[in-house]
Amino acid sequence: MVNAVILAGGFGTRLREAVPDIPKPMAPIRNRPFLEYLMDYWITQGVTSFTLSVGYMKEVFIQHFGAKYKNVPIFYAVENKPLGTGGGLLLATEGFKETFLVLNGDTYCEVTLADLQTFHRKHSSHWTFTLFRSNKVGRYMGVKLIEDGRITSLQLGKGEVGELANGGVYMINPSALDHARYVTALEKKSLEDELVTEFIELGGTLYGFETSGQFIDIGVPEDYYRASDVLPSS
């Protein structure tokens, strides 16, 4: 049983010129919402339920998907005010007891779930990032690893061409968020700038798993327009 939390509560301001009146994860690709492609991939990898963290235009998600997609249950964590990626994650995972997957709702990163789970368990990791080799200077968060895959530092907005970058797929133990639970889940927080950074500062065990699979970020028009050439046709 694997529950995947999809962070889909943002405003999508970078994509407004291409898709002005719809939440970013619902942007159409070949007449289907991007989010369907994302969910399709993870269903094939073995995900058995989804929790959508939604806020902006939440009714678009709820009306389209309802309570299930392709017989996979969907639950909703609804932000009544903007909580950021960190606050949305805390809200969506309140009460979780088992290790779970977290996906950015606007990125598609191919990684074999079974391999990610094996790596996560082997290293007794509390929080595992999926990483890819970036070809964009400064666009993604750069990551520094030691030999066994442990993450030693994050370089927000400083990733270089060819360096490992954050792919927006995380395997997380519930205990990794304990440090943030003292703050109500109704406070706006950033996943990368606050939750992860605080976790590292407190000595949390954080690892990175590199994938060579496809990666695309539809958060900017350039990648959105090429998504139909990257995403699977069915």
CATH topology, what is it called? Answer: Spore Coat Polysaccharide Biosynthesis Protein SpsA, Chain A
Major beta sheet, specifics? 8 strands, mixed
- What would CATH call the architecture? Alpha-Beta Complex
Protein structure class: alpha/beta
Give me the side-by-side strand order of the main sheet: 5-6-4-1-7-12-9-13
State the distance separating the first and last CA atoms.
24 Å
- Tell me, what is the CATH class? Alpha Beta
Helix residue percentage:
25-40%
The succession of helices and strands, N to C, reads EEEHEHEEHEEHEEEEHEEH
Q: Helix tally?
A: 6
Instruction: State the CATH superfamily name.
Output: Spore Coat Polysaccharide Biosynthesis Protein SpsA, Chain A
Spatial shape: globular
Q: From the alpha-carbon coordinates, what is the Rg to the nearest angstrom?
A: 17 Å
DSSP summary, beta strand count: 14
- Beta strand %: 25-35%
Would you tell me the overall average pLDDT? 87
> How many domain regions?
1
Give an overview in words:
25% of the residues lie in helices and 28% in strands. With 234 residues, the protein is α/β, with parallel strands linked by helices. The chain has one domain (3-229): Spore Coat Polysaccharide Biosynthesis Protein SpsA, Chain A (Alpha-Beta Complex), CATH 3.90.550.10. The strands form four sheets. An eight-stranded mixed β-sheet has the order 5-6-4-1-7-12-9-13, sandwiched between helices. A hairpin with a 2-residue loop joins strand 5 and strand 6. The chain is globular.
